[in-house]
Amino acid sequence: MSLRIHSLQAINWSHLSPSRISVDGRINVFCGANGSGKSSAMDAIKAVLGARRFGQSRTPAHYLHRSPEGREAATALILLEASGLSPLLGAGSDHGTLCMSVTRRSRRFCLLEGSVGLTAPLEQSMAAFLSDQPRERWLAPERWRREVLEPLGVDASMIRLFELPQGEAHRVMAAKQDDLLAQLLAMLGHQDRLDELDLARASLEDAKREREQVRHGAIAEQRRVASLERAREMADELTELEGEVAVAARTLAGARAQHRVRIETEAQALRERIAEAEEQLQDSEEAVSELRARLRRGAPTLAPAERDESLMDHLRGVCARHTGVSILDERLAADLAERELIEALLGPRRYGLLVDDRAAFDALREDPDLPDGVPLVLTPSLGGGSGIDAYLASVGLAGPMVREEGGVWSGAEWFPDAAAARREDLVGQLGDAERLRATLAAQTAADRSLLRSLERELSEIGPAPHADEASTVEEVSLEQARAELSACESARSRALDRILGSVGSVEVLRARAGEHDGAQARLEEALSLLGEHDAAVERLLGVLHEATSLWETERGRILEEMGERFGLLCEAAGMEGRLVVETSESGRSRIDLLMREHPGRPLKSFFRDGELSGGWRAKTGLLLLLSALTGERSRCPLVMIDEHAASLDEDRAQELGEVFARLADTQGLQFILCAPTKRASESLGWCDAQIGFLAPRAGDEWAQAPLLILRAAGALAA
Fold this sequence. Notes:
Blueprint: E1 4-11, E2 21-22, E3 27-32, H1 38-48, E4 76-83, H2 86-89, E5 96-102, E6 107-113, H3 122-132, H4 141-149, H5 156-162, H6 177-297, H7 309-320, E7 325-329, H8 336-346, E8 351-355, H9 358-365, E9 376-378, H10 386-394, E10 402-403, E11 408-410, H11 420-461, H12 478-502, H13 506-514, H14 516-572, E12 576-583, E13 589-596, E14 604-605, H15 614-629, E15 638-642, H16 650-667, E16 670-675, E17 689-694, E18 704-709
């Protein structure tokens, strides 16, 4: 059994009389003039059934009673006696009272079993009633809607109908054509399905947005990784070039070390050779000194008497004619080179002519008195006899040669004696020693010059490197190592120029290169997350597609049934109408209403044709509303319409009332309607009860109690 309202008692609610108002008929019509309180009574019922706002944006707090003196009541209490409450009270109890307490700040609700009514004095009885109810029995509006109203069949679509202003009930279907289908399905009790689909679509859109955000994040990370990858490549290149420079520097250090070792080895060998040569030179000098001393010790005594006077005289006679000529014993030559020359010319002869003047030499050579076989020698280097005198002095001989009259040189001659052979051997040894000494001196001077050159090269190479710097894999020339190091440093310099041009500094480059691994990890995480979002979107697409496909099939059956009901209700209201489903170019489904006002006229579209009159459009809207609120799929227990006949003439209002009566009979619906008439009307004969509301008289605080007239035609008091 569905919810049915039996009575209303409103205390401190607007100017309604606090007496009980009976509404237990199937079709109940509140009648009365404007301001008589009929709409306030309907709003009281609607407020208990979940309405939050009413016409002109009023809330339940606006209905708190205000006395003629302007004093506002602190609390209003609505008691709505109803049946069909077994889903809440249990199988043994079906009858109860829906209660609502209203203050300026809040609303509270509770459900009581059985009938509850308050009697005078109202203030005391209401205070006692409120205090008797435990605090936990009162529910907040949201819990009231969820725990009481929804199980009774009062859903969001009905509450939306309750909140419409007076005379605007038909406008619940006056939305845009694209939104009308969803509203009708919601009134048929399929709001949950619609919400599920909307939630699925919203979840899909959220998933797409999240995926797009993740995709943008992944793209940003890809760009960042690409940028950091370039930085890392440049850093790696710089590191590699620095490594090559370091290797080249070590190679150069090794080459320098090797070269230094070679030079030091050569220098050391030279030093050793110079030292050895110096020792040999010292030995040769000592040998020369020793030989000279031995020659001095063994020098013969001059014996002029033993000279070959005949030859000497003859030679002097020859020489007297020529200046610069002297007689020379070959053993008296001081210079080894001149002595060798004299020995080569004189041979075994003992005497020869030594000439130090070219003219005298030429004249002497042509002199016929010169004996045959006497050699003639031109020795300008011995001019003045200084060489001979020096030698004679070195061997300790007295009587050096002197220049005699006529330019003839005379002096001591050396004659053979018993030690001649030994002296000649000593002279030979002396010559060998002097030659060796000269050779050693020349070689030592050359070695010293080469050593100075090597030492200069060592100073140019620089100090000795560390032990590790001197190690190298293979032998390399110093020039090749320098060229390789120069090439590596040039490559590094070019890389540094690129770095300065792109990132500004090496520190920034290395910092960005260090961020690469973290960015790569974030990119991989973003790509993994993007894959998860792609999978989630695909899953939601599949779920939504499956749910939409099932819903489309079910919705087709629902709309077909509703179309049949709409056609039957239109026929009962004396008009022809059809509900058709259209599919737009975007793939969305929507409905249209095809109406015919009079037989023989063409069908007109409710939305596209503007030729339907206002009354017909209002009537059509109410019929469409009723077709959505009725039927096997609908759980609607109660229809409340304030000024149901607004914009309708008397005939169409009568036709609409007959539709109400038919639905009450066939669907078991309860109607609570409101008609702005001061009198009971025969035209409302299709209703079960006409409840007349009387406006308060001047100075009265409350309106008079409503009069209940069952199918009466008599006039109501003004």
